[in-house]
Amino acid sequence: MNEVLLSRLFRHQNLLTSRLVFSSCCQLWVLTPLMAYGSADTLLRTYFPDGMSESLIAYLLNGVLHALEYLHRMGYVHRGVKASHILLSAEGRVYLSGLHSVYSMMREGKRMRAVFDMPHHSPALLPWLSPELLRQDLHGYGVQSDIYSLGIVACELVSGRVPFQDMPPTQMLLQKLRGSHCCLLDVAPFPLGELGGLKVSRSGVDSGIGESVATGSLTHSATAPPTDRPQSPAPKNHSATLHNLVQQCLQQQPEHRPSASALLSHAFFKQVSVFVVLVYKQRDVVSQTLVVVVTGESTHQRLLPQPHVPGRATVQP
To answer: Quick check: 305 pLDDT over 70?
Structure first.
């Protein structure tokens, strides 16, 4: 219900809000736009098991930051930023979902410096939650908690694996409170000192828009990846700007992390020029979508199956 109410309040091109809400047979129905390409988590598990290219990561995170900048300016903290809450439409627009975890920092018309509420379903969100939110002390947490989550998402998109995911909750909590952090090892992100014998796992599949709301399905299933999907080179050499972005987001002290608006001008996002999604026809049947990320220095191409919705050529800044 909280998500439904907030959907009527928020108006932003990068936030997934409801288009229609109605009740039928004692059930509440919420209609949202169809996200033809599903979530970033779906793309990771299906097409980029070893992580996405930096250009695609920059484009996705840029959209998320615009959504977070809007939420933070409105006085809300998201508390649920992760890859499965980052959705991609057929037109190539990035949406941030998971509004059920959003929490207001406004009290009696004044903005609080910190809040103390623990989000629902927090066990599933533990890998992405900030140390100050998990600490639950008198200092509380604020919007900078979302910036930490964004840093974890960056690691998630780089390698296709979630940092801290395979740790028991108690160990994960201790690692975060002690200041153990993730870094880009140019192969995969893991907590420092926890590499030996550590298993890896894929991201969660919660899209953040409710079980009754479906996202567009891709041609191949996640459990049986297509044999012709592009393979990421190994090992990876990440740019200095990506390393710097992750380092800034994952600062232990929240006051040392940049704001969402400040991160939008980070050097890592200068490569985002345009993102083109071309849907072309072959023998009058839409066959596949060519995803092209145009950057200042080069152009990266990936072939993805056409989602099960009509499409057209579009260019989005």
So the answer is: no
